[in-house]
Design goal:
The structure is a single chain. The N and C termini lie far apart (70 Å). It contains 12 helices and 11 strands. Strands 1, 2, 3, 4, 5, 6, 7, 8, 9, 10 and 11 form an 11-stranded mixed β-sheet that branches. The radius of gyration is 24 Å and the shape is globular. Helix 6 crosses helix 7. It folds into 2 domains: 151 residues, D-Maltodextrin-Binding Protein, domain 2 (3-Layer(aba) Sandwich), CATH 3.40.190; 148 residues, Periplasmic binding protein-like II (D-Maltodextrin-Binding Protein, domain 2), CATH 3.40.190.10. It has 346 residues and is an alpha/beta fold.
Length: 346
């Protein structure tokens, strides 16, 4: 009996060891995918969970920062690339990476279902749109009333002396939202008038911050009554109950596209393409529609509080290729003129 019992225990231990090795082996086979992103942190978990559920053999490893920082990091790593995929980065940044020969042209599965206007026009495309995000002004009506500040209706209003010290804005070198503001003003009014406007606006700016969301959060807390931000964060702040009105300036809204690209140098092209496939899927677009009024998959977006029905018609004319080609020059000029009011870098 003892021998039999000992043998049974040995057999059980052997089975458990084999199962353990099999589980370890299966875990070891999970391929890590390095994904550089500027997505809002609110959204990252949902994308990761959704993709990994559909692709259990791949693990998404996010590397996140603001748009300008991610763009600079990718360019700095050009000789020694680390990213497999880029997701949720501004199309104007991806157009620049395309010009540098860093992106792999790839048409993901289901691409023909998407709105073609929101992806790279080349065939196959080097970047595929997820959503459109656009400028908005967050206006704290309670704090503004205390200061005797009227509600602005236009970009030009913000250059009036009554708003001196009352405005925060994203820094265009670190924030994609800040860059789309500057780029849109230069395109909307021409470069001479655009810089004149920013000179006047600068007199009223209290601080240039390193995040597109932060100005709206500052407006919500009353730190500054006006924050130049974007509609995603404005919608979230308003939804939270803050005394914030969303203003869509009547001259038009600067905008950009969050998009996905496969890096040309990835050592895991099959897995990277599967990630691009999933990001182009209806499932991923349904996640995106939680926060964005305009998404790449037609018919998926839903009505968001505070976002007007004619939202897409408010978008200003925008040449993303021009913005990409002139990015370095624009940022150098902007920094020379206005960097003195930038918040310290974290």
């Amino acid at each position: 009996m003892k021998t039999s019992s000992r043998a049974a225990r040995f057999g059980l231990s052997l089975c458990l060891a084999v199962l353990g090795l099999a589980a370890t082996s299966a875990f070891a086979q999970k391929t890590p995918l390095q994904v550089y992103t500027a997505l809002e942190t609110d959204a990252m978990k949902l994308y990761k969970d959704g993709f990994e559920k559909a692709n259990p053999d791949i693990e998404v490893r996010w590397v996140r920062d603001s748009t300008g920082i991610v763009t600079a990091k990718l360019l700095a790593e050009k000789a020694n690339p680390q990213a497999d995929v880029v997701a949720g980065l501004a199309a104007s940044s991806l157009a620049l990476l395309k010009q540098e020969g860093m992106l792999m042209p790839y048409e993901p599965k289901g691409f023909k279902q998407l709105n073609r206007a929101y992806s790279d026009s080349a065939e196959p495309p080097s970047w595929v749109g997820m959503d459109v995000w656009a400028a908005a002004i967050c206006f704290n009506r309670v704090e503004a009333e205390k200061r005797g500040i009227p509600k602005p209706e236009s970009w030009k209003d913000l250059a009036k002396p009554v708003y001196k010290g009352a405005i925060s804005m994203p820094h265009p070198a670190s924030s994609g939202t800040g860059f789309l503001d500057v780029s849109s003003w230069l395109q909307m009014w021409g470069e001479d008038e655009g810089w004149k406007y920013m000179d006047a606006l600068h007199q009223n700016i209290a601080q240039y911050v390193h995040s597109g969301s932060k100005p709206c959060k500052q407006a919500a807390t009353g730190e500054f009554p006006i924050g130049i931000s974007f509609e995603f964060r404005a919608h979230q702040v308003k939804k939270s109950g803050a005394p914030v009105d969303i203003v869509f300036p009547k001259e038009g809204l600067g905008w950009d596209i969050e998009a996905t690209s496969v890096m040309k140098t990835t050592t895991k092209p099959a897995q990277a393409k599967r990630f691009a496939d999933w990001m182009a899927s209806k499932e991923a677009n349904v996640i995106t529609a939680n926060w964005w009024a305009v998404v790449a998959y037609p018919g998926v977006a839903s009505k968001l509080e505070g976002i007007p029905d004619n939202y897409e018609k408010l978008l200003a004319k925008n040449d993303l290729e021009w913005a990409a080609k002139n990015r370095e020059r624009i940022l150098a000029e902007w920094g020379k003129r206005y960097d003195g009011k930038a918040e310290p870098k974290p």
